[in-house]
Specification:
Helices cover 49% and strands 10% of the residues. The strands form two sheets. A two-stranded parallel sheet has the order 1-2. The protein has a two-stranded parallel ribbon with strand order 3-4. With 115 residues, the protein is mainly alpha-helical.
């Protein structure tokens, strides 16, 4: 099986903000070989649509950003441990509903054990 693993600039920023130095260094080491996807204006506008349509609250805008970055860069899925704001049945359905309404493809949002 051939695949590409990528993270967003936001993921790198989140890792850099980790307070536990040992954990931060281990996470940085683990993602080092991954491609890094930029957060562009299109992704920001799209994430704002998720907020406007009630998929994400304004306080979780950064969680919303992960999805359009993945879709715009043609990733097949988002993998996350964030069960509250990303990996849950209701949110997945709402995200893909907005994607379809906006003319974008749907995306899988999975927890690591599901991959």
């Amino acid at each position: 099986m051939e695949y590409e693993v990528a993270i967003s600039e936001l993921t790198k920023t989140e890792i850099e903000a980790t307070g536990d130095r040992a954990l931060r260094e281990e996470m940085a080491r683990l993602v080092q070989p991954f491609a890094v996807r930029a957060i562009d204006d299109e992704a920001r506008r799209w994430a704002q649509q998720y907020v406007r349509r009630g998929v994400f609250s304004p306080g979780t805008f950064e969680d919303a950003l992960h999805v359009p970055v993945a879709v715009v860069s043609r990733q097949d899925m988002v993998v996350s441990w964030n069960f509250r704001h990303l990996v849950n049945r209701r949110r997945r359905a709402l995200i893909n509903e907005v994607n379809i309404l906006m003319g974008y493809p749907t995306i899988e949002i999975l927890a690591p054990p599901e991959v």
